[in-house]
Amino acid sequence: MTRIICTTLLVEKSPQALPLGAACVASAIKHYPPVEKECSVKLISFSREDEDIQKLKNDEAKAELLASKLLKETPQIVCMSVFVWNRTIFELCAGILRKKGIIIIAGGPEITAHPEVFEKSFDYTVTGEGEIKVPRLIEKIIFNKTSDATPQKSPQNSSTITDLSLLHSPYLDGTIDPAEFGGALWELARGCPFKCSYCYESKGEKTVRLFPQERIDKELEFFAKKKVPQVFVLDPTYNANKERALSLLKKIARITPDTFYYFEARAEFIDRQLANAFTKIPCALQIGLQSANENVLRKVNRPFNKKLFVKNISILNQEGVTFGLDLIYGLPGETFASFCQGINFASSLYPNNLEIFCLSVLPGTDLFDRAQELGLTFEETPPYNIIKTDKFSPADKQKAFELAQACTYFYNDGRAVPWFMTICHFLKTKPAEFFRAFYDYAKKNSINLCCCEHKLIEENQIKFLTEAFKQRHLDRYKKAATDIIRFNGAISRKTATGKSEKIRLTYPPEYIDSQYSLDLDFFVKNVRPKPCEITL
C-alpha cells in the first residue's frame, strides 16, 4: 500500500490558518476509486509558530526539521501545499526528501502562478484546484503510467474547472478536526466576479461557483455538534447574493447561535435588511477599502463609489454591526499623502479595526503582469513586497509601515474605536498625524509595539495622551479622557474574557457611558467630578 502525506507549513497558529487546501486534497485522494484501496493518506500540518520551528534561525534548518518529521512517517509520496510564506522552506525540504527516493507533488498559489520555476524543485507540479488533478496524477504514479523522462511536468495541468458537487468535505469525512485549531475555515464558494489586479482571482474565471447547499447544511450541523467556537467564512462576495446571504444567516442563528463568524463583505452590497440580519448572530465583517483614492483603485480594476461606501458603512454603524476595514500602501498611483488621506477617511467611519498592509505583487496576478507599465519595483522573492513605485519612495514605504504599526497597536489592539475620533477632534489632529505622533512617542519611550496585552496598551495610551494634553496646555481634560479610556477598556476586557474588574473613576459612570463623552470639551464643562469605584 502506498503511503501518502499531504502537508503544508502554516503562516501562524490560528483558525484562520487552518490547512484547508491540503485537507481538501487529502480528502479527494481518499475518495478517488482507482486508488482508495491502494494507498493510505495522512494530513500533517506545521506552523511557522511551532516552538521547535520558531527557534531555528534559518530556512535550511527548518527544512531539515520538517524533512526529519515527514521521514518518520515513511511515505512514498508527499503532496506539498506551497504558499508565499513556505515556498523556500518547502523547496529545501523537497530536496532532502527526493534524495531518499520520495516522490514530491507540489501545488498551491505559488505553483499555479509560475509552475515552470519549480521544475527542478519538485517531481510534479499541479496548477489550479487540486482535488481532481492530484488523485489522477497519483493513479498514474502508482500504476506507472507517467513518463520517467519528464517527471516534472504534470499531465494534469489543464485549466479544468472543478465541479464542486463532486468534492467531499474534509470536515465531514474526518480528514481535519477543527478542535485542533480552535475553529474552522468554511468554504462556501470559489471564484469572484471582481478582478482586482493584486488578487490571484484577477486572472481566474469571472464566475462564482457555489458549494452544494446540502454540503453547507451538513457542515453547519457538524460545527454545532463539535461546538466550534469560531468560523472564518471563505467567500469574498458573501453578501453579493442577498437572498442567499439572508437565508444562511437565519440558519446560522438557529443552528450555531454561540459560534462567532467572520465574513468578508463588499460595502456596496450592504443594505438595512442585511445589516440587521448580521446583528442576529455573533459576527464581524471585514471590508476591503484598500484606498480612498478613486483614481488609484481604478488602476487596479477595483470599482469604488465613495458616497455609496460611506452611506452603507453608516448603516452598519447604525445597526451596531462589528466591522473592520483594510488599507494597502504602495498601490500604483498612490502617494504618501493620499495614503494618509485613506487612513483619515477610514478612521472617520469608526471601524472596530483598521488593517493596513504592504502591497505584494504576486506572481500570477494581473498586477504582476503590468508591474513595469505601472512603475512598480518589488521584491523578486516571497513575499514580493513593493519596494517603490513612481509615486511612492522607499522612505514613503517605511513611513507607511510605521503608521501601520502605530495603528495596529494603539487603535486595533488598544480597542480605541469608542473614543479615538473624539480625541482626534478635540486635539484638532487627523488620525494619520495622530498615529505618526504616537509612533515617535513609542520609539522615544522604548514601547514594544508587538505587545498586545490590553491593560499595558491602555496605560501607554493614557501616558501618551497625558503628554499630548500637557504640551497643548489642556491638562484639565486629562482626567475625563482617562476615565473614558479606562471605562471602555474595562468593558472590552469583560466582553473578551467574561471577567469583571474594579476601576476608579473621577466622573460619574452614567455620564461617561452617554452621548456626553463624544465631545470632551462639552463633557468637562458640563459634568461635575464625582470620584467613585465601580465594578464592570
Which descriptors would you attach to this protein?
536 residues; alpha/beta; Rossmann fold; TIM Barrel; 3 domains; six-stranded parallel β-sheet; five-stranded parallel β-sheet; 21 helices; 17 strands; 15% strand; globular
Secondary-structure map with pairings?
Layout: E1 2-10, H1 20-30, E2 39-47, H2 51-54, H3 59-71, E3 77-81, H4 87-99, E4 103-107, H5 109-113, E5 124-125, H6 133-142, E6 184-187, E7 189-190, E8 209-210, H7 213-226, E9 230-234, H8 242-255, E10 260-265, H9 272-278, E11 283-290, H10 294-299, H11 306-319, E12 323-329, H12 336-347, E13 353-358, H13 366-369, H14 371-374, E14 377-378, E15 386-388, H15 394-413, H16 420-427, H17 431-444, H18 454-471, H19 478-497, E16 502-505, H20 509-512, H21 520-526, E17 532-535
Helix pairs in contact: 3-4, 15-17, 18-19
Q: Output mean pLDDT.
A: 95
Number of helices: 21
Instruction: Assign the CATH superfamily of the largest domain.
Output: Aldolase class I
The number of strands is: 17
- Computed structural class: alpha/beta
- According to CATH, what is the class of the largest domain? Alpha Beta
The low-confidence parts are none
> Please, what is the oligomeric state?
single chain
Measured on Cα atoms, how large is the radius of gyration?
Answer: 26 Å
CATH structural fold name of the largest domain = TIM Barrel
The major β-sheet equals: 6 strands, parallel
What is the approximate shape?
globular
Strand content: 15-25%
Q: What fraction, in percent, of the residue positions are helical? A: 40-55%
- The N- to C-terminal Cα distance equals 61 Å
Number of domains: 3
CATH architecture verdict of the largest domain: Alpha-Beta Barrel
Could you give the order of strands across the largest sheet?
A: 6-9-10-11-12-13
